[in-house]
Design a protein that fits this description.
Layout: H1 2-26, E1 35-40, E2 43-51, E3 57-60, E4 64-67, H2 73-84, E5 93-99, E6 104-109, E7 115-118, H3 125-131, E8 144-150, E9 153-159, H4 161-165, E10 181-184
Parallel strand pairs: 6-10
Antiparallel strand pairs: 1-2, 1-5, 3-4, 6-7, 8-9, 8-10
Length: 185
């Protein structure tokens, strides 16, 4: 009986950990060019819209620069709250993502509409190719490349549209990361 209770407790812990991990992967993280609305309750001078700079930081009165890139809205709010408390004690801080502009992918080569696309939600390679208007008649659909920056180094991933369209090699239809470039020769 005790072993059964321990097994059930362990199963519950594993399920909770898996759910937390899945939720963390789905949480939006801030990036350059995003626009945040920040307000300190009952203080109009400390209510403003800020744009995340290319270096990933925002500037806010009294506290200076705050790193926003790669962080959640709640994480940035908590830091601003902590730092602003020195100047305006016990005033709640609110942070909202007003404009999401940073999660971009680039599609180049022989597609209907090459260009830059903002990902408003998670997107696969097939979905991105559909946004780009599909292929031109001379596309080499079996030799598509995905260029990805991983830790400052360029990584190349292969994508065979023909195979994926037939239900094969589905593992190649990956979720895109911000900054990925799809090259259609």
């Amino acid at each position: 009986m005790r072993a059964r209770i321990l097994a059930i407790a362990a199963l519950i812990c594993l399920c909770s950990a898996a759910t937390a991990l899945a939720e963390s992967k789905l949480m939006y993280t801030i990036g350059p060019e995003d626009v945040l609305g920040i307000s300190v309750w009952k203080d109009e001078a400390l209510t403003r819209e800020v744009i995340v700079r290319p270096d990933g930081k925002i500037s806010f009165p009294l506290i200076g620069d705050v790193v926003a890139n790669g962080r959640t809205v709640e994480s940035v709010r908590a830091e601003i709250q902590t730092r602003i408390n020195e100047f305006v004690p016990e005033s709640p801080v609110s942070v909202m993502a007003l404009q999401i502009k940073s999660p971009k992918v680039y599609i180049v080569g022989k597609v209907g509409r090459p260009g830059m696309y903002v990902m408003f939600e998670r997107m696969t390679v097939m979905q991105a190719l559909a946004l780009a208007g599909g292929f031109t008649p001379f596309s080499s659909t079996g030799d598509i490349l995905i260029l990805r920056d991983v830790g400052g180094k360029q990584q190349t991933l292969n994508f065979d549209y023909d195979a994926v369209a037939k239900g094969k090699r589905l593992e190649q239809n990956i979720l895109l990361d911000r900054g990925d470039t799809i090259v259609v020769p």
